[in-house]
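Forwarding the complex inputs:
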Amino acid sequence: MAMITNRRRDVAVAMSLIAPFVVTFALVFLYPTVRMVLLSFTDAPLIGNGHWIGLENFKRLMSDRLFFTSLKNNGYFVLLTVVPTTALALAIALTINRLKGALQALVLALFFLPYILPVSVVTEIWMWMLDFQFGIIQPLFASLYGKSIPVFKNPYWVMPTVAAVTIWWTNGFNVLLFIAGLRNIPQDFYEAASLDGATRWQMFRRVTWPLLWPVTALILTLQLILQLKIFDQVYLMSKGGPFNSSYVLLLMVYREAFQLNHGGYASAIAVVLFVVIMVVSVLQFQLLRSRGQK
Amino acid sequence: MAVQLRNVRKSFGTVEVIHDVSMDIAAGEFAVFVGPSGCGKSTLLRTIAGLEDTSSGQISIEEQDVTWTEPAKRGVAMVFQSYALYPHLSVYENMAFSLRLRRASKREIEEKVLEAAAILRLEEQLHKKPSQLSGGQRQRVAIGRAIVRQPKVFLFDEPLSNLDAELRVQMRLELARLHKQIGATMIYVTHDQVEAMTLADKIFVLKGGIVQQSGRPLDLYRDPDNRFVAGFIGSPAMNFLEGTVTGREGDLTILEVDRTEMVARIDATPAPGTSVALGLRPEHIRVGETGLPVRMEMAEELGGLSFLHTRRPDMSEIVVEWRDGEHARMGETLHLACSPDKIMVFDTEGHRMR
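Prediction (whole assembly, two chains):
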């Protein structure tokens, strides 16, 4: 009898402990997600009900050129950021890891600093630095290309610029993850390798790289998810232009929902992005994990 | 000489941890550095390996000065306390690691790895990852990685301290067998004097970065140079009794401990009134009708023999080895005596008076 009461009490305690999370999760994630999916099958405006129109929104998407432009730009942005930022973070982490004591802490702090800035400050800084007429980086462009470049007005330059700013802004966090991973590799491994005659490169190739792989896979996956959701930087720096050359899916969602009041159509785009992120990130993580276990 | 150290010193910043160490280790010898933690034994091993630079002095391996040679070119292999097995590589690949680094042929790698695996009975484990092995097996893989390199000198840094007691005894025997089988020079660091006694051809007892004494295990046991070595080698440890010299009769020195007379046969002739410490090994103490009075406190029964823990009037402990059946009960008073030839005498600085 006592046992049963105890067990019941355990369950009650467990329930009450997870309840805050479950309720919050249901309220701010699950419910909106379900509503969004349902909304994507209607012609509803942003607020208020609409009619059920089945797959009409998705059919319309298939003939919307801006949708494919945005999808392509999202992919391009992922290419420009995910692997480069990971490689850069690894290189920086390896360098910082070889520094000692206070200097190491200082350099790490310097690399991490941009990460704590709000996005609007980041974009303001870079728009100022890259300003066509007064930007302090323009003389560099001028010396390399013979003329100043209006990076936010040039369809070839705009995405790489947004990508560079994004990497500058978020790279510190990846550096931190890599440093944590590097510190987890026991010094003994390097001493054993040096007794075995390993060169610096061999130590990296045969010890550091494989042992760091789980961290690398994690960073790649987190970055993939994060960069597919690109919105703020584009919105603040180029508004999707010029000629839609930096238009991305979330910008389209924003325009359809909040500027054109097309709640249903915007939801359909959001659903597509949601599915893309899920499928791609799960696939990537599985792929990376299996490579790690080989 | 396989390994020769001349006036080696090592400082970390302003702290000198190795003070002017010189030693000779002959080819094929099993040398053990033993001492309490912080005595510099691991640092000394790491300087021989080249993982630490010496501050001054010279290290030679097989008559070649290697003081400033890279670790990999010294011809040494090291077994780490943590084993340092690469978790992402199989046992085979762990053992093949050094050969792959120097791009040995596939055939040579296979030959050498299989040979080492056979010596260490690891043939069945070659395709497993280190995480799938038991502690003892991991230990053997770590040794296998060293064997594959066919080094001039094997270095072991407390290799058994991560194993449980039973496995430690077993691995100790295996190491002794391995040493016989491959006949290589080995240097072994441990804080455990039992390991040192059972494995070593030559023991170096270290304390405070200084070699206190070196020699064959039994020589150190029977004829220690100072109180530290006498107390460190042997289990249970030697008993030390503070006493005073009272006189001399022929070649016997008369001493007084706890108002009881004791006699030691030493050549030194300390003046009457000199304060000394008497060293008595537990197995040399006899229980009789007369002698040093102590109170029986408890007994550790090990079957064939027992260790009696007794207390002197000043409450310091004396441990007595007992082999003759029924021993005294708790609280009884015993009288302890020891043959004059077996009593060691140390001056107040800890130096042996012979």
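Chain B touches chain A at residues 49-51, 70-73, 76-78, 80, 82, 84, 86-88, 97-98, 100-102, 145, 149 (CB under 8 Å).
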